Amino acid sequence: MALQLHIYPAPPLRLTPDCTIHTGIVQLAMSGRFLQSLRGQPDEFGVFLPDAAPLLDGVTEPDLWAEAFVASSVSSPASGFPSGVAHVRASYLVDPREGGSTRRLHLGGAAHIAKGINLGYRVTVQTA
After folding, report:
1. CB-side exposure of 86: number of CA atoms within 13 Å?
2. Which one of 17, 34, 81, 97 is at 20 to 30 Å from 74 when CA atoms are compared?
3. Radius of gyration of the chain (CA)
4. Using CA atoms, how far apart are residues 73 and 77, in angstroms rounded to an integer?
């Protein structure tokens, strides 16, 4: 089973010079999955937010608040099957696709994806 991920960010909302809110939709799909166990654990996911500025070397990580919710699902979960998102978190991590030590804003969590799910997200970054 392979996790397929797409992100559709909205423009960042700068509330104050020290507070920015990042929102958008993360689309998750699992290829090769046909049945989901009643006791199945949620699948881990993670995505770097493309609209967030990198954290410069030596700068302390700002305060972060991460939220996510199920915006829509590819198929309705059958009665008794798990659905939803949990363990949502945000942090600045080194993006392995870039190389180097630049840290980028990363949103992670776990979701009961089944065939596919769209998650709305909001990450608040408070620098002071």
Report:
1. 7
2. 97
3. 16
4. 8
* Rounded Cα distance, 115 and 63, in Å: 34
Give, as one character, the DSSP assignment of residue 51: T
Amino acid at 45: F
* Three-state secondary-structure class, residue 68: strand
Q: H or E segment at 27?
A: strand 19-31
Interval 5-25: pLDDT, tens: 899 999 999 999 999 999 999
Q: What would the pLDDT profile of 54-103 be if each residue is shown by its tens digit?
A: 998 888 999 999 999 988 776 655 555 677 889 999 999 998 888 778 89
DSSP element (H, E) containing 61:
none
- Gap between the terminal Cα atoms of the chain: 42
Cβ atoms of 2 and 29 within 8 Å: the answer is no
